[in-house]
Write a structure and sequence with these properties.
Bound molecules: fe (ii) ion
Structural class: mainly alpha
CATH topology: Heme Oxygenase, Chain A
Largest sheet: none
Strand content: under 5%
CATH architecture: Up-down Bundle
Number of helices: 10
Shape: globular
Distance between the termini: 65 Å
Order of helices and strands: HHHHHHHHHH
Helix content: over 70%
Low-confidence stretches: none
Length: 240
């Protein structure tokens, strides 16, 4: 075995370690997700959380764009272009996520224009500003850690909780569930895109440690967002 092969085997093993660490994160058993998926919230409470998901979905393509422009090797960054086309709001790509999400908004009686004209909740803004700032100012490795591990890898399970939670609303049509369902299906493939980029981009242990740092720090911030969201939904009447 030559040195290159040995290095790539080590990197793959170390990536597996990060995967295990991330998969055992407390975020996957967060009280907000547990309560949501077990039917602990009614339609009005879920509507409140769904409204914030708008800002997440809207901003994610900007994060992808920020990462894309920071990778100089076009062969490494190419898969991000296709990803961006599916995630970008207004995109006409088949399976474009905003089209699916619009159906969720329709069901809850939320309008895109209204959401665009009001600010996100403080906790939403705080988390979204954090992750966008990581994309612009932290190392590319940390951005890969945020997107690959703290989003795509854990999102398969997080979206399963969302899906089961939203499904508990009596009479909800399938059209309002597709957005959540398709994320459960797409995330393993999306994660693979980032894993491949990490394998091509990351060349040293130090570099991989930055990926891990980006993953863990983002998960911590995401947990804080869920803490706030749970608090908000649990005290819903106060916000009326
Ligand atoms: Fe999406
Ligand atoms: Fe995804």
């Amino acid at each position: 075995m030559n040195n290159l092969t040995v290095n790539s085997i080590f990197r793959t093993m170390n990536i597996q370690k990060i995967e295990e660490e991330v998969r055992s994160s407390e975020i996957l058993n967060h009280p907000f997700l547990i309560k949501l998926q077990s039917g602990g919230y009614d339609k009005e409470q879920i509507k409140l959380w769904v409204s914030q998901q708008f800002y997440f979905s809207n901003q994610f393509p900007r994060c992808l764009g920020a990462l894309w422009c920071r990778i100089s090797d076009y062969q490494i960054s190419l898969p991000l272009m296709k990803f961006l086309a599916v995630e970008h709001w207004g995109s006409e790509e088949t399976g474009a996520h905003w089209k699916q999400y619009r159906k969720v908004l329709d069901y809850f009686g939320l309008s895109i224009n209204e959401l665009k004209s009001v600010p996100a909740f403080d906790e939403t803004k705080e988390y979204l500003d954090y992750r966008f700032n990581v994309c612009l100012n932290n190392t590319v490795e940390e951005v890969l850690g945020f997107m690959g591990f703290a989003h795509e890898l854990v999102n398969e399970k997080i979206f399963a909780s969302y899906y089961h939670g939203v499904k508990t609303i009596e009479g909800i049509p399938d059209s309002a569930l597709t957005y959540f369902k398709s994320h459960i299906e797409d995330e393993p493939e999306d994660y693979q895109i980032f894993k491949n980029i990490i394998l091509s981009f990351v060349k040293s242990d130090e570099s991989l440690q930055l990926v891990e740092k980006g993953a863990i720090q983002t998960l911590e911030r995401r947990i804080i967002f869920f803490d706030h969201m749970k608090n908000r939904l649990d005290n819903f009447s106060k916000y009326q």
